[in-house]
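Protein Entry — a single chain follows
Next Lines — sequence and tokenised fold
***
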Amino acid sequence: MPTFEYLARDRSGKLIQGNLAGADEQSVREQLRRKELFVTNIAPKKQASTQAFGWITKKSVPLGDMVVMSRQLATLVGAGLPLVESLFSLIGQTQNPMLKAALMEIRSDVLAGGTFSDSLAKHPKIFSDLYQSLAKAGEIAGALDETLQTAAEQLDKEQELKEKVKSAFVYPIAVLVTATGVVSFLLTFVVPVFAKVYNQFHAPLPPPTQMLISLSMIIHNFWYIVIAAGYLAYRMYKKWHATDKGKRTCDLWKMKMPLLGPLNRKIAIARLTRTFGAMVSAGVPILSGLQTSAKVTGNTIFMEVVADACQKVNEGIKLSEPLEQSGQFPSMVTRMISAGEESGNLDEMLRQITAFYDRDIEFAVQKLTRMMEPLMTVVLGAVVGFILLALYMPIFNLSKVLHR
């Protein structure tokens, strides 16, 4: 017999949560009615067997699911439903297993007397610092629906930004995969055939041809060592990147690398100003909002700059001054922040900066895509051309070898 999870109120209006077995939903409602309980929500309880393969499910919640969940919860809370009932209703509509399990735990915490923001903090892999801060600000101001809507908008814009960046790399990745496949095929199957022919003549080979044949022999005869070495190098890089020094070096290199460096800097600034603007509008304290916004960028360089700026703001210095002195922000950004501080309209200035960078990033991505297409074609042609030239160079001298 299936078990149903219900949320009901007694005659005094007290909220009661529980589980009850019944043939169907209607029979459970009848049982609760006989107990003089008014049912507000009821849903089939998820069976333990469905959790048995929980390790197969995704380890993260897509931004799209977070956006939909946030908008639905904001709508329910804005309509006047209590938070517990809103969460109960939302659980029945959520498809992502990881998000659904988190929402069930959050609802249980809220029922036990915990705050919504503290409950979110128990699931940092799902709810970011930005989400938690906005929820806390909404609880304090009594405008949770508005801050949840703001969180949904921020997540939506972040997803849109990621899609734009991904679109710029679709073609280069496709060309890179194709190039890797073509080169691997030539080195594994074509070059060894040419090597056997050249060995029959016992003639000295040009350096490019000798290098190519040596590389082919290594891949053909010791492919397992090549794979193991590649995996080991990857693991060493991941371990180094996990250190503070490694991550800082990578973040610094990302902003200095050709073509992609300026784009990475614009993306970090857009994330910082968008998040900071949303938190200032929601009533989050400036220093707390600034520190959370720096984490959202995912860039240690900007985190260091913001940490220094927060310390100087505590000393009574304007925010725009340490940001300008860091050299990481364009003068337009620092001047607009300075204007916002002086006019008391900082959130509006931050929104304008974000809007500018959103358009600039879109233009930069389009420009980068147009540049990448011919560049990758040239690179692929150069690699394949080098292999073919190295293979056929001995043939050009074949007549001299035969006359000996």
Summary: The chain has three domains: 1-50, 59-127, 157-404. Residues 47-58 have pLDDT under 50 and may be disordered.
